[in-house]
Amino acid sequence: MLLKSKYRVVFLITTLLIILSLSISTINYVVSLNNAQSQLKDQALPLSLDNIYTDIQKSIIQPYLVSSLMANDTFVQDWLVNDEDNSQKIIRYLEAIKNKYDMFNTFLVSDKTKNYYTQNGFTETINKNKKDNQWYFRFKNIQNKHEINLDFNEHLSNHMIMFINYKIFDHNFHFLGATGVALKISYIDDLLKSFRLKHKFIVTFFDKNGRVVLSERTINKKKTLDDYEKLKEYKELILSKKTNVIEYKKEGNKYILNTKYIPELDLYLTVEANLNDFTEDVENVFYLNLLTSIVITFIISFLIYFIIKNYSKKLEYLSSYDTLTNIPNRRTFEEKFNSHLLLKRRRDSDLGVIFFDVDDFKSINDKLGHQKGDMVLRRIASILKKSVRKTDLIARWGGEEFIVALIDSSLDDTLVVCEKIRSSLEEDLKLKNICNYCVTASFGLTMVSQEDTIEKVVQRADEAMYEAKKEGKNRTKILN
Fold first, then answer.
1. Is the N end or the C end of the chain the one with fewer CB atoms within 10 Å?
2. How far apart are CA 91 and CA 120, in angstroms?
3. Which of 421, 410, 470 is nearest to 446 (CA)?
4. Tens digit of pLDDT for each residue in 349-361?
């Protein structure tokens, strides 16, 4: 019963610890997940938008300065006014600028002749009726002195090119033409790839019509915003000049999209993040914490079980044994003796009981002290254990009284054992050394009958022991 109770306590504690661990880990996970979502939405994505915007600005600063330098160069202005017939001069100039600043291309358009020059020579004469030439006439008529234009040019490359256009004026501010540099946008593609690999963001640029202008080409084959099944319903927000945060679900995953208008490019920048990519670490921490909690819980449970087991053993021992003499106590004797009483009634086997009391023990305590008295009791218990079989029952009944039950022992055999114990006590040298005289005891002996109870047996043995005391002590008296 005690063992079952012990296991129930350990099971209950283990269950409570597991529930506590699960609760704490789950609460931490939910809090961390919410924090990760909030941080992504309120900090990481907006900051990434700004970083991308800043990187793009940095990438066009030098080309912009070079374009400005070319437009304000007096050589270019003089050549357009006085020496345009000598095309080799401007071609060499454009080639020198390209090589010096490591540009993809340099160009110049004369407003007087409408000739288009690059570092490779004369390219074409532009015309209002040609679609590819419309950029020049549009640029000529705007108020800004410069612009950034993303476009294709079949004479330069089959890839998207970034053009930085700058107007050229003479000293009287008459429009002479346009010049500038051209850059491949592959560096932007690399930039977009780095943001995906390093920061787990998908970056895309749309024009005002929703056309995909810039994106990482290896992972995005879509051409317009309408090709995005989940985003096309947010088209108006994405193509708004206000910064927006859009949350949506796709294929069971939650996504967050930040948008920003870039006026220098007249493009709409979107930064998309899959929430799972940012909560993966949170989930890993959750599972690690959960595993750690469970391991710690089982370690604690094992320690609790081990402690309870040890304490149970101690309690069992304290409840069953006399702490002074280390032999069974009265309660244990009664439990075991009752079992043998039942066996006797069934098999009618012999069962002898010896009850004895140390003679003049009070004088030992009074004259020699309780410490000597305890030593006497421990020595008597040691002699008693050596004098009976392992199958027999012994116990300290209380004070200086001891009891013995001899299993399957006749009256004659019980008397022999009783006399053996009595003479061993009287002749024991250790007892004599403790008290400086021979220690004796008075014994009462009785045999158990079929109708007996433990109370009747002990009462007869006790009466027999008192008869022995009356007759002079250090003797055995039989009473049936």
1. N
2. 7
3. 410
4. 899 999 999 999 9
Tokens 């469970």, residue located: 294
Phi, psi at 439, each rounded to 5°: -95, 130
Burial of 89 (0-12, 13-18, 19+ CB in 10 A): middle
Q: DSSP for 62-111?
A: HHHHHHHHHHT-HHHHHHHHH-TT-HHHHHHHHHHHHHHHT-SEEEEEET
Give CA–CA dist 254/232, Å, rounded.
16
Burial-class residue 174 by CB neighbours within 10 Å (0-12, 13-18, 19+): exposed
β-strand pairing of 476-478 with 393-398: unpaired
User: Could you report the per-residue pLDDT of 84-128, keeping only the tens digit for each?
Assistant: 999 999 999 999 999 998 888 999 999 999 999 999 999 999 999
**CB-based contact 214:160 (threshold 8 Å):** yes
Check: CB of residue 160 under 8 Å from CB of residue 150: yes
Q: What's 383-451 look like in SS3?
A: HHHHHCCCCCEEEEEECCEEEEEEECCCHHHHHHHHHHHHHHHHHCHHHHHHHCCCCCEEEEEEECCCC
